[in-house]
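Researcher: Next entry in the queue.
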Amino acid sequence: AVVSTQSTGDVALPSQQPYSVSKICKARLFFVSAPSKLTQEILTDVFCRFSDLIDIQIVPGTAYGYIRYGIKESADAAKMLLDGANVAGSVLRISYADDENGNKRAKTDH
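Model: Structure for this entry, 110 residues:
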């Protein structure tokens, strides 16, 4: 699969990786897609390319949600490659949902 980014153009995604066995979350990402929602199937196909994906939770009725990884480096790699990427006609924005200590980040107005 290929995604497009503004800075690097088309980027080939790594091959699909196995899901996490331990289910212990080491990093949680927040995502939003615009202008339209992405399906669970599309998001799973994109985010499972980084090792130790635990799950993807879409907030019902919205275009945003959370991705949990069992390895922090996988979340880092997913954020680095996919933040700002065009996936199925929508731009993905990705940020860390928790701070370095595992606490939820404070909401900010943009």
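Model: The first strand starts at residue 2 and ends at 5.
Researcher: Noted, moving on.
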